[in-house]
Amino acid sequence: MFSDYISYLKEKGLANNTIISYTNDLNSFFNDIYARSDEYVTAVDIHKWVDQMLNSTDLKPLAISTINRRLNSLRSYYSWATNNNKLQHNPMREIKDLKSADEDYEKILWLTEEEFANLLQLIRKKPVNSRGVNTEEKYRRDRAIIYLLTYAGLRVNELSNLKLTDIDLELKRIRVVGKGMKVRTIPISHTLFAEIQDWLKFRLEMKKQKTHVAQSSYVFYSQRSSKFTVRGIQSMIESYSLPKKKLTPHMFRHTFCKWMLRATNNDIEKVRRLAGHSNIATTSRYLKDSYSDLAEAVNALPKF
């Protein structure tokens, strides 16, 4: 039966390395519980196996990600076996992946102040590879987008849909239509005000030179379209990725929430309103310290 499953994986067109990984994971399981691939296995057997991997006495305990990968291999195998009437019982039906205590933090990536400063330098110096692109125009637009995402905490679709009439420079505020068509108003900080003002002045000049800019009601436009699409913004952001850190638009929203919590002395309600979170539990995730924060804390202990 095991060989039939491997043949199935090959027919699906899986990469050879993937098939080897599945094979190794399954062999480890059946060897560890002293069972054949076609024998009856229960959820209890799997729980014991997981416990064995977490509390190994002779080897280094496996990482959560490795254990979850092995569970996924079992999940695929038993799903195939039951769907094809090879086995009647699927022991993986109620088995869930393990969760790390730091899992919520790992899903939330943000920029440090040093990384943000380095990014601004990168935007200034990065060469433009596409022909016919105005280097200064691209630099000013991309910089303004980065500042709006970071200092206003906008979602990428909110930024894409942002219209000129949504920005009130006189009252220093931005009108944002968020999820569920909920409207929120974000005050414009002094730092962000200067960046927006600079971009809008430059945009007026471009309006005289390009028809699609003159016809656009949106704050940001692309090279050929009156509106900078979500995908276009995502691609632009990714192109500035830092060493060992792939950038995404949402990472700047995370940065806004983290920096705002620090600025407000962890006032969750203020940050919730500014970010447009419907549930304060979403905002509270940002209260978790990063691993580097924890490392700095333990190193700050008294030294004797």
Automatic annotation (TrEMBL):
PROSITE patterns: CB, TYR_RECOMBINASE. Residues 1-82 form the Core-binding (CB) domain. Keywords: DNA integration, DNA recombination, DNA-binding. Residues 106-299 form the Tyr recombinase domain. It holds the Pfam family Phage_integrase. CDD domains: DNA_BRE_C. GO terms for biological process: DNA integration; DNA recombination. The keyword Iron-sulfur does not apply. InterPro entries: CB, DNA_brk_join_enz, Integrase-like_cat_sf, Integrase_catalytic, Integrase_recombinase_N, Integrase_SAM-like_N, Tyrosine_recombinase_XerCD. This is Tyrosine-type recombinase/integrase. It comes from Metabacillus litoralis. The lineage of its organism: Bacteria, Bacillati, Bacillota, Bacilli, Bacillales.
